[in-house]
Amino acid sequence: MSEAILQGPAPVGRDPRDRMGAAGPPELTSAQAEVLAAQRAAPDNAAYNVGQYIELTGPLDAAALEEAVRHTLAEAAGLHFRVREAGGRLYQEPAAFDAGRRTLPRLDTSGAGDPTAAAVELVREQLACPPRLDLLFASGDPAAGGTAPPLTGAVLVTVGPRRHLLFQFFHHLAVDGYGVSLLTRRIAEVYTARLRGGAAPASPFAPVAVLAAAERAYRDSARYADDRAHWAARYADGPAATSFATGSAPPSDTALRRTAVLDRRAGAAVAGAARSARVTWAEAVSAALAAQLHRETGAAEPVLALYAMARTAPGTLRVPGMAVNTLPVRLPVTGRDTFAEVLGRAGRELAAVRAHQLFRGEEIARELWPGGARRLPGPLLNLRPFDTELDFAGTPGHVVTLASGPVDDLSLSVVRNPDGGLRLDFDANPALYDARTLDGHAARYTDLLRRLCAEPSRPLADFPPLDEAGVAAALAAPAPGAGSGPGPDGSGFDRAGSSADRAGSGFEPAGEEEGPLPLLPSAHRLRETGAPVERLQESLLLTVEPGLSAGPLRRALALLARAHAALRLRLHRLDGVWATEILPSAVAPAVVDRDTLRRVDVRGTGGEELADRIAHAARSAVRALDPVAGRVLRAVWFDAGPDDPGRLLLAAHRLAVDDASWPLITERLAVLVAALSEGREPPEESAAGGLRSWAAELSAQAQDPGRVAELPYWRELLGGAGGAGTVPYGPPGPERVTGAALPAGTDPALLDRAVLGALALAAADEPRLRADGGGLLVELELPGAPRPERTVGNLTPAHPVRVAATGALAVPDLGRGHEQLRHLHPQAASVLAAAARPAVRYTRYGSAHRWTGPAGWTPAPARERAALRTALAALPGAEPPVCGALELSVVAGDRGGPVLRWRWAGRLFTDDEARALTARITTTITTLVTGHDTSEETSP
């Protein structure tokens, strides 16, 4: 490589008067300047137009969407400018943006044979129009007016009932792919806020001057010289360009496209191979492309081009602007190498690229391949870590890229779907490739990637290339979701670029959420007790079919945790401040820790001995829970041998599950175990609703003006100065269990009224149940509140109510607003924190403990479950503290009638007082429901 990059021109000293970015318009970034130079060299070329569409499936308010697009474009002022030349430099001079005149055109292709394809063709006509350069450049007089050419646009196309495509197109002079993702997320955010009646959150955008200032600072820094030295040393030998094509051609503004889709099973194999080499899926797809280049060209060190974000300075990640860089990636490959070895090299190489990503690739290209080259030759990798799934007020939006910029040679764009599958878009310059050639490259690469990741320890030479028959067979396999399902290898091909990439079959469950989780109201409630939380548990004991084995059961638990984010929850605590996150499956204990499942041999054991074994193992399992370490799930399989039913204990932390979670967990676990035990793929499960999105939804509801309007109601209801229940009233007295012989079909609402009425009657002459001196204040936790579909988590709300002897319940919106205001609205929280706290808590559980699943999976016998509960009640920290005077939990009994479980504050009541009080309340409950006393104590 020429020493020009190493020595290079010295950084130009700038007179402060020249720094118009400080007092006037900012300079174009280097990325913008390169785009502009290329556009001026070929003014009729539309290669720098980029576009995408968002597939919206569900109800849509087109007027609100138009307003959200208009609002977002107005916020992103840096998208609207003209170019001004002054003193040999190029500046982006802001141009007026008339939001009132910007509309969202609406089209309808629903009557076409392929509505999506018809819509795409319509929009491609827009993408084929280059900008008007005569309008782009400002006149010499800064005060002169003029119309700037639009560098952005959008069209809404209806393609079917409740199906719309929001097309967006931009010129690369204004924004890069990352910037487009910022704009898209903001449109969804503004639309959602408008539809829910609230104001849009403050703009997250930073001005484009931030990018220009960051680049200027970089050029003036020592890091610029260090990066220049790195690239000079890395390419000192001037390696030849590598390409699948035999010739060269100018960049094309049209491209051939072939899309391949790896379903979640194949995507999991890619992720697994990457994890074993301590890299990511991005390195895996890069290494496989280098391996394919080596096989087909013989190049010992294939050189790829890679898009880099080039946004490392503070604030640059908030700018919807143009900064992207293109840099070379060089990977030595031989036939003797294993893919694991190539993955290791790819990890080191991409780490070096990221560390030196600010040095412009155009400078490297001009030195490596002289002759006017502005861009790096050879295959280009576009690894897109951006979100492809968006939420438009409950209507899901899926992003599909149409064009990402000029196609010099062959471009591979890769997106990882939420379910772990991969979408691979192969775009080829039609001057270098025809459709058949592109099909072959796409099929061979996809096949090679899949096989290398399945066996990363084998030498590359052991993998023969796909022959023509194999290519034909691969191309014949439809994309997952496109009809008959994916090919046997978990891959499929699609030309349309529609939603086909989002489906597919395989072992990997959908919904791999990860990242920070806003603290849920249930977590706030636990935090406020101030008590230790390490061992707080919810547990379930099941009878399971004979002949299970640990392998399928362990794998089923791992798959369950992959699918349900709550089972990968981790708690962070610092000086009383809590935060929670969802761990990636690669590190979540419930997925990777073999100790998640323990086997206990109980063959030949029964009766009291088995109950004792269960109780002992349960205490050990609960002691192992630790949300700070991410251990929120433990299971114990009591193996009774091939002929007798065993038992399965599931113990989960209360931060991760509630009573309504158990049916979801047990039903899916039984299905997974059955399929894996028989060597079958488990049937698909409906995607979980999303824990993080639910937390965000609760936070948004808390800020809603309608919700805030409930504050006076709750303040008046609670009344008095607070204090009751602010600390545990411990130690709790011993639990007392009573049975009320009520009909099995007793209406839950009737039962609730009877319980509250009985509590109110008891409180009339028991001041210890009226901590604030007023009427009885009860905290209710009842099943049936709205929650995201098929989502595990501690999501059941609780709220206070003032109770009269009638037991009437009358609170707005089922009481959901209280916990939102109390825990998720900072201003309202301070008001409600000062109010009185309930002295009595009433919880009615659903039917989780009477759940009946597939054959052989049922609740364990009552005696064993009672022994389990007694053992855990005696384990310090396994139960939450009593934070009032009295607590009542009602569960369905084995004979259909409810079982009442009482706990009380040992500081307020002696055991004899509590027994007399709870017996009287139980009698009143049964009398209110049946008209006569049928209560009985069922255990001490």
Short description:
The protein is α+β, with helices and mostly antiparallel strands. Helix content is 35%, strand content 19%.
Number of strands: 30
Figure out the total of helices: 28
Mean pLDDT: 83
Biggest sheet details: 7 strands, mixed
Shape: globular
Strand portion, in percent?
15-25%
Helix content percent band = 25-40%
Structure description:
The chain is an alpha+beta fold and 940 residues long. 35% of the residues lie in helices and 19% in strands. The strands form six sheets. The protein has a seven-stranded mixed sheet. Strands 25-24-26-28-29-23-30 form a seven-stranded mixed sheet. The longest helix has 20 residues, at 435-454. The radius of gyration is 32 Å and the shape is globular. The termini are far apart. Residues 1-22, 480-486, 495-511, 721-730 and 934-940 have low confidence and may be disordered.
List the helices and strands and how they pair.
Blueprint: H1 4-7, H2 20-23, H3 30-41, E1 49-57, H4 62-75, E2 81-86, E3 89-94, E4 106-108, H5 115-127, H6 133-136, E5 152-160, E6 163-171, H7 177-195, H8 209-219, H9 222-234, E7 256-262, H10 264-276, H11 281-297, E8 303-308, E9 325-330, H12 339-355, H13 361-368, E10 380-384, E11 389-392, E12 395-403, E13 410-416, E14 422-428, H14 435-454, H15 468-476, E15 491-494, E16 515-517, H16 521-529, E17 537-544, H17 550-563, E18 569-574, E19 577-582, H18 589-592, E20 597-601, H19 607-623, E21 633-639, E22 646-653, H20 661-677, H21 691-703, H22 705-708, H23 711-718, E23 736-740, H24 748-764, E24 776-781, E25 799-803, H25 816-824, H26 826-833, E26 840-844, E27 858-859, H27 862-873, E28 886-892, E29 898-904, H28 911-930, E30 935-939
